[in-house]
Design a protein that fits this description.
72% of the residues lie in helices and 0% in strands. With 171 residues, it is mostly helical.
């Protein structure tokens, strides 16, 4: 039985060694079992993933919407970074992504940012993008009464999430 195991181990080890990049060959030739070779490869891949993780986190935390950039493109870029981070094991909930997207918006978007930040419950990318899209379109298409447009957009966003309280209407 030991001979059969040794033959299978040597065969599997040879297969791993033949598939490894020459740069990493030393990590799998210095071991005697398939498990040791597998563990050595695992360490190399984990180190590579960790090396990629920090720049992605930095890129997401510093992501800012450009002046002429479409809000959908901006939000898609943030979502793509989040997906890459998720594949590397860094799972972030949707609320954290929404707050990150909002923090990268220009100062002129303060009203809509405030409304979205104060929405009840979980935020999702589709709702936030839908609320931000008309503001971005108005800003790029024409600048007439942009502050009024932002305020009305903020009111519309809050009204869609919560019905008006009759007591609040009477002041």
């Amino acid at each position: 039985m030991a001979d059969a195991w040794d033959i299978m181990n040597e065969s599997a080890l040879a297969t791993i060694q033949s598939l490894v990049n020459p740069v990493h060959l030393h990590s799998v030739t210095a071991v005697s079992t398939t498990k040791d070779a597998w563990d050595a490869r695992k360490e190399i891949f984990e180190a590579r993933e960790n090396a990629r993780l920090l720049p992605l986190m930095h890129e997401l935390s510093n992501l800012k919407k450009g002046g002429d950039e479409n809000i959908i493109k901006y939000a898609s870029c943030a979502k793509g970074l989040r997906q890459e981070l998720s594949m590397l094991g860094n799972r972030e909930d949707e609320n954290a992504l929404m707050l990150q997207i909002l923090s990268g918006l220009p100062a002129e978007s303060y009203m809509i940012k405030t409304v979205v930040e104060n929405m009840d419950g979980k935020r999702n990318l589709a709702d936030v993008s839908a609320n931000l899209l008309p503001v971005g379109q108005r800003r790029s298409g024409g600048r007439s009464s942009s502050m009024t447009g932002i305020k009305s957009q903020a009111l519309a966003a809050s009204a869609a999430k919560k019905p008006w309280d009759k007591k609040a209407e009477v002041r």
